[in-house]
Amino acid sequence: MLTVTRMDLDGAGSPMALVTKILKAEPDLPIPVPIEDLARQLDITEIRVLAADGFEGGLITDAGRSEGFILVNGAAGRERQRFTVGHELGHFLMTHHAPKTDAGFTCSRGDMRRARLAEMTPAVRMEVEANEFSALLLMPPPMWRHAMNGLGDPDLGQVTALARQFGVSKEAAARSYAQYHDAPVAIVVAKDGRLQRVYRNLSSFPKLCVAAGDPIPPSSAFHRLPATLGQMSDMVEARAQYWLESDWGTPLPELSEQVAFQRDGFAMVLLWAELAEENEDGEDNRTSKERLRDRQAKWGDRR
Ligand SMILES: [Zn+2]
User: Fold this and answer.
1) Which of 4, 82, 91, 231 has the fewest CB atoms within 10 Å, measured from its CB?
2) Which residue ranges form the domains of the chain, and what is each CATH number?
3) How do beta strands 68-73 and 236-238 pair?
4) Digits of tens for pLDDT over the chain (303 positions)?
5) Cα of 120 to ligand 1 centre, how many Å?
C-alpha cells in the first residue's frame, strides 16, 4: 500500500531529489516498482493506452499541475510502457517543465532515448530530465546497487536478469549496468551490423573510436558468430585498437567482448576493458607473451 503524496516531494526539483524523496516516503517500495500505482498516488488521475503512430507518450495537465493525465503508446512492449509512464510522471512532477504546445507534452520514441549532452536546448533538457527521473525511479539506486552487488565478472546474462527483475527494457538495464558496474564496461547497441548507441561508464571506460552509424569493427567476434537469436557468446578477447581511441604512447587496455543477438537485427556487445596495471615507474614490465599467458589463465575456465 503506497502512501507517498506530492506533499512529501515539496522542494524537490531535480530527478535525483524527487526520487530520493519518493524512496524516503516509500522505504519498502517493491521491485519491480509499481509505476502506475505510484503515478496514481501522485495525482495522475488516468493512464490511457493509445494506439497511435509517431508518439510514445503524452501528458495532459494544467499550468498549476492540479492533476495529470498520461497517454502511452499501446504498440510498445510492457517494459517500454512502464518507462514512458515514468517519463511522463517526471514531466508532471518537475514543475519547471513546460509543454511545447497547448495540447500538453507529446514525447516521441527519440525523446525517450535522449541522454545528457554538454550543450542542450531547454526542450532537450526537459526530455533528458524526464528520462533520468524514469530510470532512477524504475531502477532506484539503492536497490539497483544491491542487486548488482557480488555479481562478479561482467556478463550480458546479468543485464537480461536485471531487466526482468526491475521490469525495464534490456537497453534501459544496459545503460544502468554500465554506469554502476565496478569494472570498466561499455555496452554497444548495434542494428544491422552498425553501431547505434553506446552506454559506458564515463569515469572508467575509455572513449570509443567507433561512432554512431559506423560498422561494428570487422575484427569483432560479432562477425564470427552465428546470429542465433537470444544466444550469448562467451567472453572472448577483442582487439582494443579497433574499438578504442588511442593516445600516442599510452598502452591500450586489454579488451574482452561478449555478443548477444536480439530481434529485428539488433545486437548488444559488452566490452570490458582491463586497464594496464602500472608499476611505480609507469611501465608494465611483463612481456607480451607473459601478458597473454596471464590473461589466458584468467579466462581459462571459460573456454
Ligand atoms: Zn517527454
Assistant:
1) 231
2) 6-138 (1.10.10), 184-278+293-302 (3.30.450)
3) unpaired
4) 899 999 999 999 999 999 999 999 999 999 999 999 999 999 999 999 988 777 899 999 988 899 999 999 999 999 999 999 999 999 999 999 988 777 789 999 889 988 888 888 999 999 999 999 999 999 999 999 999 998 889 999 999 999 999 999 999 999 999 999 989 999 999 999 999 999 998 888 999 999 999 999 999 999 988 777 777 889 999 999 999 998 887 889 999 999 999 888 899 999 999 876 654 444 555 665 566 566 556 554 443
5) 14
Q: What angle do CA 20, 106, 113 make, to 5 degrees?
A: 60
Q: Which three cell numbers stand for residue 5?
A: 503524496
pTM of the model: 0.87
Q: Which amino acid makes up residue 261?
A: F
- Cell numbers that stand for 86 in this block: 515514468
Q: How far is the CA of 62 from the centre of ligand 1 (A)?
A: 16
User: Residue type for 8, please?
Assistant: D
Are the beta carbons of 175 and 169 closer than 8 angstroms?
A: no
Compute, in angstroms, the gap from residue 87 CA to the centroid of ligand 1. 6
